[in-house]
Amino acid sequence: MYDLKAIIIGAGIGGLTAGIALKQAGYEVSIYERVTELRPAGAGISLWSNGIKVLNQLGLGREMAAIGGEMNRMEYRSHRDEALSNIDLQPLFARVGQRPYPVARTDLQQMLLTAFGEDDVHMGMKCTAVEQTDQKTTATFEDGTQVTGDLIVGADGIRSIIREYVLDEVLSLRYAGYVNWNGLVPADPSLCEADNWVLYVGEGKRASMMPVGGDRFYYFFGVPIPIGSETAPADRQKELAQHFSGWPAPVQTLIQTLDPLASNRLEISDIDPPQHFVKGRIALLGDSAHASTPTLGQGGCQAMEDALVLARFLVTTNISVADALSRYEQVRKERTAQLVLKARDRTDTIYAKDEDNTQDWYEQLKEEPPEAVRHALEKIILGGPLG
What's the burial of 387, exposed, middle or buried (CB within 10 Å: 0-12/13-18/19+)? Predict the structure, then answer.
């Protein structure tokens, strides 16, 4: 397709990855971000092999390996410290052709920002409206600025402004029923082995640690709590100690080790899969299109897949921008909807929406062979655009 000017709203993982892919295709790309400083909502992210393959395709494999953690196995333990399952992930990596890289979100975002080019990211620009004609698109910002291009990519997250335009309605967020605390701590053998992802589960809660770059662990806790609860940052350590009283020593050590002022506390929501990702020359990407709970670890990966598929269709179609975006929607809509709903079901199981189902899951963890877990992960990974 002829040279395009693309306007991307949002400088998160999806927006930056899309920017890189479109720039590499030879297009003029500008990204507009509402905040004045990039501060990711979560401390870490588990980027599975399908997401890493996208970064490899964009020439960022070496940079990703430098900032990611080495995760060779995953382990489930009960809140009474009973071993439930231990899964060697190496056979999975051999079958899918790429290891995952858990990573600190700040490190990932900075890597993507550097690769895209900081000069083309405009901070403090809150998009308030978009419009289009047959030939162009226009984004309007809070300060009155207007920018015009051939297409607009709405990568502005779960509370997307662009989504409202594409769908002609406001899509309500769906509270997933639990609160997530997360952050980073120095790696320590008393917490977890350096190449292991450990998950403690019980009482409809979970506590977890996984390795990221810089000799650190990314940790997260999850507890089912009614929506609207608040805790001051200084009190989060005490809050966690209460929720996880009596849990194993590594969990207690983690709670005492973490910095409560640097710990995130998030009420987790998702959205129902929308009917459309695209309206003419305007497309949704990442969480704006298919925000999910993080229980499959696929949110960032799906945004990266979106970016690659979007760029591919813009490069390979010669009919129109709208045609390319329509083809992007056709390819991405079913896969992302399936994963949103799969993550939702898994969230309900983990966080005891039905206590009997959750107890059955705990028992299943003891009996399920490692190969079954690897196969489930393999199926998700190989369903991506790069196989």
Answer: exposed
